[in-house]
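Q: Convert this sequence to structure tokens.
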Amino acid sequence: MNSHTVRTYKSAEPLAREDQLAWKIASIAADNVPLDDDVVDMIGNRIIDNASVAAASLARRPVISARAQATAHPYQKGATVFGLPSDTRVSPEWAAWANGVAVRELDFHDTFLAADYSHPADNIPSILAVAQHCGLNGDALARGIATGYEVQVNLVKGICLHEHKIDHIAHLGPSAAAGIGTALGLSAETIYQAVQQALHVTTTTRQSRKGEISSWKAYAPAFAGKMAIEAVDRVMRGEGAPSPAWEGEDGFIAWLLSGPSAKYIVPLPGKGEAKRAIMDTYTKEHSAEYQSQALIDLARRMRSKISNFADISSIVIHTSHHTHYVIGTGANDPQKMDPNASRETLDHSIMYIFAVALEDGGWHHERSYAPERAKRPETVSLWHKISTLEDQEWTKRYHSQDPNEKAFGGRVVITLKDGTVIEDELAIADAHPLGARPFKRADYVNKFRTLAEGIVEKAEQDRFIATVERLTSLKADELGGLNFSVSPDRLGQTSPKGIFDCNA
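A:
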């Protein structure tokens, strides 16, 4: 890997194109290196993982709405939409939109955390939609996905967005554009412009994950994917982008990040170097914010030491800066303690999550968020006894570049009313690559079958898994098989009509 220093340049200060971050990203995207076998296998895992959570979310309102918007844009070639027959095609940017929302709605797919945080599998819907629409084969799709992961993971390693209250989709727009460029075999020049355009139009505030969190949390990555497709299309037609997007005097670093004097170090593979960043990422066993994964496992372990939850006086979770300030009491969001809060808000409340996991001994993507579950009096009582504290050692481990030290968990101190103290800690989730039960292909398949049960017919599940198994050998006319269809009665209620339906 090469480390690239990125800073602001005045307009009159020389900055060669090849020294710009967007060009360096474009260069690796245009570098057609072979994929390692384990990378191909992991790409297949994440395609299955995305389908798993999409299947479980098909009948949820945000997904219904996004799908209705997409089907209002039919296209003869086009791309597939989760849940619909594979011969039902829509314009690729709208397929990316609908599928991106379905993948993100339950907050249940892969993650990567470093200087910032991300869900790199959010790259897949837009790259797959373009591959289907443009008649690409499975090998081109896999190479595009590998690039999407490579760019997003390394941007997340080098540039912190959340300290400036910028949503993490500002890394996703450029990575998706780069991945699409790789899949299409575009030149570095074209990808360079598209990456910059995608950054420019996907920079949004972090309020989407603060306070009363709405369904936009699911829509935001889909928006980035949709914008990336449009950015690539514009540039392929000869249009340009704001440049240099990151380093410009009035650009991203100077005014939206740490200012003209700031420097960022972004690692990227050298020419001819394999794209392996996907191997640094990890999926979720539980449908909740990633920082809660290890703590759910820890709650499951600690509950056997408590005979009566009513005997608990307080629970303090000692954890990292990010966990404390984003999903903990350090956020100072009263909504995180509100039994009437939205599912999206409860997903970002480690106090609620730990209380339910402690009581139930596990976590369920629907039952754990049900309104009646959140309003259970004994749960509310326990929930309101939980607080978080930042521990510098956990913050250090959170930001460590050493995979053997890096951790996203915490230490939990439970004090009973009689003064008894019960204490335990867990650094990484059981399903993490270094955890107690690392996820393998069989676990991804099991997750898909579990979440698809009663929604996707068994034969259709089998066909989908078999298609993924042949990923890099798939021909262009077989990419539609990376979709699954369901009976119409599994798609939920019809969405209310919108602008796109005015002439329907």
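The chain has 19 helices and nine strands.
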